[in-house]
Amino acid sequence: MAVLSCGHTQHVRHRPPWQNRPWVLDPEQRQVRLGSLFPCGWCAMDRSHDESKEV
């Protein structure tokens, strides 16, 4: 699970058909991706109805 700088979390797994992320199966490739940018799907959507959003 990735903890994003916006405060949201994102499961990062390889489980098609949802995502195709074969790198999560390889420990070396996962290590390389630590600290890299990952877009937040929640922030990309209009979350005005999200109760956890700060007002």
How is this structure best described in words?
With 55 residues, the protein is of the alpha+beta class. The chain has one domain. Helix content is 20%, strand content 7%. The chain has two helices and two strands; from the N terminus they run ββαα. It has helices at residues 27-33, 41-44, and strands at 2-3, 9-10. The protein has a two-stranded antiparallel ribbon. Strand 1 and strand 2 form a beta hairpin. The model has no long low-confidence stretch (mean pLDDT 78).
Q: Which features would summarize this protein structure in a list?
A:
7% strand, 2 strands, 55 residues, single chain, two-stranded antiparallel sheet, alpha+beta, flat
Placed side by side, the strands forming the largest sheet appear as 1-2
The helix/strand series, from N terminus to C terminus, equals: EEHH
Supply the number of helical segments: 2
Number of domains: 1
Q: Determine the oligomeric state from the structure.
A: single chain
Low-confidence stretches: none
> Largest beta sheet, briefly?
2 strands, antiparallel
Q: Could you tell me the radius of gyration in angstroms?
A: 13 Å
Secondary-structure-derived class: alpha+beta
- What's the mean pLDDT score? 78
> What's the β-strand tally?
2
| Distance between the ends | 26 Å
What share of residues are in beta strands?
5-15%
Helix content: 10-25%
Shape: flat
Organism: Pseudomonas sihuiensis
Pfam family, one: DUF3565
Protein name: DUF3565 domain-containing protein
InterPro entries: DUF3565
